Amino acid sequence: MAVLAATLSGCMTFGSSRLQTDQVDYARALAEAQKRQTLSNIVGLRYADPPATLPVSSVIAAYSFDGSANASASLSTQNNAPTTGGIGAGVGFSTRPTFTFTPITGEDYATAYIRPLAPSLVLPLIQSGVPIDVLFRLVVQSVGDLQNSAALSGASSAGDVGFFQLIQVLRRLQLQGMLTMRLESGASGMRVFMAMEPGDDGSKEAVADAELARRLLKVAPGTKEVEIVYGSLEERGARVPIITRSVTGMLTEVGAQIEVPQQDIDDGTTLTTVARLEIERRAVAVIHVGQHVPREAWISIERDGRAFWIDRRDFDSKFAFSVLMNLTALAQSDRERGGPVVTIPAY
Asked: Which residue, of 56, 248, 294, 328, has the fewest CB within 10 Å?
């Protein structure tokens, strides 16, 4: 009885102690599930399968304790038999977490996955330290008349050399702290401005990079700040037009860069791997294909008897994949949760 009482009294502090563990464990589990779902969609789109989205909307972790105690005794004087007795106690513990999934459908799906991401939503990430070359390779289809790679563009799928020259020179300016983004509230929404100013103490290389960026962007020489607008412009000057991709577009482009087996291309299962120019040979996120998942896999899935994974030792690919997931989360941030739900009790 004393043991049982001590055990049950200790349960009073169980909730607060479990929070420290459960919060981290469930966060990691959800992040891992989101990574696998994103990779699954990338690979699926490589083979023309529609993306599947079933985000977790709630997690309910329920715990229960059961305790019991019993005692018995018998006394007999017949034939000098000894007195007998017994005592027992038991404690049971169980956990029954419940996960609720909310499918994204209708207008929510169109907003989150089909519509291009607004420049005012994406470009401020540059100010947060996200490399501009990685960001542009993922989310920007074109800057003015400079085209990024396009999976469904046939012979011209590799894009323009000028596009990759631009993102490389912008990255050099960013590393030197000479590229800044500014948001301004306007009548039609948020306006985005980009400054490329080396300053008086800028090196000759920085000044040359800023001038090269202005030439590629086709803005007037000496322009310190340009406005980034969505769409296309006949007249340039201090405004630079860009076309952004949707989440589905980004996933498709990353998937198109997977070096799949030649047999899949020959038999029409998928298209030829998107071409890459000499100036940018590496895929933005390198996804490997093989028969088995290696121990070095950072994230992996299996599909049609093959394994697809990203190597944990490939920091650039892991970082680009994480940026892609952040962009997906941004696209979903404005949608309202609702619609049907699927609740799965995990006993």
From this structure: 294
| Cβ–Cβ under 8 Å, residues 240 and 227 | yes
Structure tokens at 19: 């929070």
Nearest one of 242, 77, 99, 82 to 163, comparing CA atoms:
242
Query: What is the pTM (predicted TM-score) of this model?
Result: 0.81
Q: What does the CA dihedral 252, 257, 262, 265 come to, rounded to 10 degrees?
A: 30
| pLDDT range class, residue 59, cuts 50, 70, 90 | confident
Length of the chain equals 347
Q: List pLDDT tens digits, range 77-122.
A: 556 556 665 666 666 666 777 778 777 777 777 777 889 999 999 9
- CA atoms lying within 13 Å on the CB side of residue 235: 1
pLDDT, tens only, 313-329: 999 999 999 999 999 98
Contact 199, 181 (CB under 8 A): no
- Cα separation, 271 vs 154, in Å, equals 10
Question: Which two structure tokens, joined as six digits, stand for 89?
Answer: 């106690």
Reported confidence tier of residue 160, pLDDT bands at 50, 70, 90: very high
Element (H, E) at 13: none
Phi and psi, residue 249, nearest 5°: -65, -40
Token output for 147: 């085209």
Q: What percent of the chain is predicted at pLDDT more than 90? A: 47
Long-range pairs of 34-40 with CB within 8 A, sequence gap ≥ 24? 34/325, 35/299, 35/321, 35/325, 36/299, 36/300, 36/301, 38/251, 38/321, 38/324, 38/325, 38/328, 39/287, 39/299, 39/300, 39/301, 39/308, 39/310, 39/321, 40/301, 40/303
Positive or negative: CA dihedral 219, 225, 231, 234? negative
Distances (CA, A) of 203 to 42, 74, 181, 215: 42, 97, 21, 19
